[in-house]
Design brief:
Length: 418
């Protein structure tokens, strides 16, 4: 049964690149509609990022019409019935209607067809199964309109079947709920995810990484992550303990500091207690080198930041740099569990805005002039001098710098050579 309503306030359907593609592909026995996320987001009054189009026309016909209209076409997924059309710098994936003939994971056999109902029924969630034509008429064959109104994320058809087609849908369920849902997760879908969790082992780390990092910054991440952990789904993903309390606390701290959501910072709060955790997660999720280094830095002795004096905090900021200092401090704050000490933590977090670390002013030439030869000794004395400069709270006057240089040069001279 199809239910229909009109999409109001959608000028992009009437004019512009998307409207041009719809006009191109409609007529002469063929039909085209916008499908999936663009329809969902338009109904939820959220930004529309990508506009995907489904059509009854075969890829060859899509390509022929595009060429006749002077529109560039790229065969980005011909084996799946997809051609990408580029109009005024905007890319539109145009896919011929499909239906599954055999389903076994991501390698399901797919036949191109002309049935809008069958095409909708093979999608993942009801709120993603809607389509809208060029006149703004929304077509709903799966109950998506009702679920959008209720902010309910549930699988189309039997959840177990949808999950068995692609086990990544387990993670997508929690991520989509965190982004578009409200309240508790749909129970039938949730139980199916728990029952199918063994299938997560068949997924590539790269695909898991994409979903997890999107989940970390979704608006409803706390509810979704709590549900995942309660259902035993965090262990097969992270391979260790998940800390839901610090995760929720880190999000509150970000907001209190006016910071944008950061997936790696939140991932650290959720799953990193020590650097070994950071390395395990970086390996399991195939994080980029930059992401892995950031996670490792946050996990490195974060507990030492609690109760720091201003002087000690300045030394930490100097050593770590603003970003690493802030992220490690947020992890320490989130794990402290002491809401009564928020003012002290906030003071430490605001240090980079109140104080900029000066550059270490002593140079190699200062020590060569004091008789230190080029080589390992020079590097050692510079490191000793920098430590002394930090301990003296960053003096910049020449007498203090001369005293530090003299003392560290003398100290090196006294140390026995190996």
């Amino acid at each position: 049964m199809s239910s229909m309503r009109r999409l109001d306030d959608a000028p992009w359907l009437k004019s512009g690149p998307a409207a041009r593609v719809l006009t191109l592909l409609n007529g002469d026995g063929e039909e085209a509609r916008v499908v999936g996320g663009a329809v969902r987001n338009a109904l939820l009054d959220l930004p529309i990022v990508d506009v995907d189009i489904a059509t009854t026309a075969l890829p060859e016909e899509v390509t022929r019409r595009a060429k006749a209209a002077g529109i560039k076409s790229v065969p980005t997924g011909i084996e799946h019935g997809t051609v990408t059309l580029v109009v005024d710098g905007h890319a539109f994936e145009v896919t011929t209607l499909r239906e599954d003939t055999e389903t076994f994971g991501r390698k399901a056999k797919v036949a191109l067809g002309r049935d809008w109902v069958r095409d909708a029924e093979r999608r993942d969630f009801t709120i993603n199964g809607l389509s809208v034509d060029g006149q703004g008429l929304i077509h709903d064959y799966v109950g998506g309109l009702e679920d959008i109104a209720a902010r309910c994320v549930r699988f189309i058809g039997k959840p177990e079947q949808r999950i068995a087609e692609d086990y990544l849908r387990i993670l997508r369920f929690f991520r989509i709920h965190a982004t578009y849902g409200a309240g508790e997760v749909d129970r039938a879908s949730y139980l199916a995810c728990i029952g199918g969790q063994a299938g997560l082992a068949s997924l590539s780390a790269e695909r898991i990484r994409v979903e997890i990092l999107k989940l970390m910054v979704a608006p409803g991440a706390v509810v979704a992550v709590n549900a995942m952990v309660d259902g035993g789904l965090s262990l097969p993903i992270f391979g260790g303990v998940a800390y839901t309390g610090p995760f929720a606390a880190s999000i509150s701290i970000e907001r209190a500091l006016g910071l944008a959501p950061d997936p790696i910072r939140r991932l650290a709060a959720l799953a990193v207690a020590v650097t070994e955790d950071a390395r395990r997660i970086a390996s399991r999720l195939r994080l980029t080198n930059a992401e892995a280094k950031a996670l490792d830095s946050m996990g490195h002795r974060w507990w030492r930041l609690a109760g720091m004096s201003e002087a000690r905090a300045r030394r930490r900021l100097y050593r770590l740099g603003e970003e690493r200092y802030r992220d490690r401090l947020i992890l320490a704050w989130a794990r402290s569990g002491d809401a009564s000490d928020a003012a002290s933590w906030h003071e430490l977090a605001s240090l980079p805005a109140r104080w900029s670390a000066p550059k270490f002013p002593l140079k190699a030439a200062d020590f060569i002039a004091r008789g230190i030869a080029q080589g390992p000794d020079l590097g050692q004395v510079l490191a000793l001098a920098e430590d002394a400069w930090l301990a003296a709270e960053f003096p910049l006057d020449q007498p203090s710098l001369d005293a530090i240089a003299d003392q560290t040069a003398a100290r090196l001279a006294r140390e026995p050579k190996s």
